[in-house]
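Colleagues,

For the teaching module next term, I've prepared a clean inverse folding example: a structure given as tokens, and then the sequence designed for it. I'd like students to try predicting residues themselves before seeing the answer, so please don't circulate the second half yet.
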């Protein structure tokens, strides 16, 4: 009987220890202030409760030992041996203090102790530097491009084009016109007419002289 009693007590003690080891408690929860991939701050809470109890997690920002505001809304997490994690978006400031409250019905109703204190440096969003190609640069092809052939006259056209005469110089066409006009309006006809008249007068004088000379011989 004594042996059976000792065995029963040992079994009960072992079951009690095992039950306490699997039971959910505040030590199964931990919190950390980190940054996501976009440089935004987040607060993560991890639950390693092997009994897989559902817990409600609420986060508060502390100021002078009192709750300043609640961060987001309360979230539920179901623990596991590998750890179950939930996150709260929060652009936390350096050395800020947060209170994380854990509630499991009839088992846990406590804060994670001590309160969470953030790092000395806050998360910083990566600033994108402008690409060198973003700034407009003059195109080498545009600046070095020679004027179009259509804009400048060809060699044949430039050589065939007559030179513009000066204001005081008559053009070749004007000279030719003056020469032609000089030939057409010269005094040659008038001189020829006067010479012809002289020839007629002289001839007439000779004719009358010869008649007078013949008449005088006849007498």
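(Answer key — instructors only)
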């Amino acid at each position: 009987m004594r042996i059976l009693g000792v065995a029963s007590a040992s079994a009960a003690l072992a079951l009690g220890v095992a039950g306490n080891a699997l039971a959910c408690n505040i030590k199964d929860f931990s919190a950390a202030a980190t940054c996501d991939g976009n440089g935004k701050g987040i607060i993560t809470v991890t639950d390693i409760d092997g009994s897989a109890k559902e817990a409600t997690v609420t986060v508060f920002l502390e100021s002078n030992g009192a709750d300043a505001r609640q961060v987001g809304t309360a979230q539920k997490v179901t623990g596991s041996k590998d750890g179950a994690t939930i996150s709260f978006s929060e652009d936390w400031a350096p050395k800020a203090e947060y209170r994380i409250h854990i509630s499991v019905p009839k088992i846990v109703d406590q804060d994670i102790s001590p309160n969470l204190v953030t790092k000395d440096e806050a998360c910083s969003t990566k600033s994108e530097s402008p690409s060198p190609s973003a700034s407009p640069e003059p195109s080498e092809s545009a600046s070095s491009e020679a004027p179009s052939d259509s804009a400048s006259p060809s060699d044949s056209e430039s050589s065939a084009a007559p030179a513009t005469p000066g204001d005081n110089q008559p053009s070749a066409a004007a000279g030719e016109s003056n020469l032609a006009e000089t030939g057409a309006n010269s005094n040659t006809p008038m001189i020829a007419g006067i010479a012809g008249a002289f020839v007629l007068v002289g001839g007439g004088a000779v004719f009358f002289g010869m008649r007078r000379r013949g008449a005088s011989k006849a007498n």
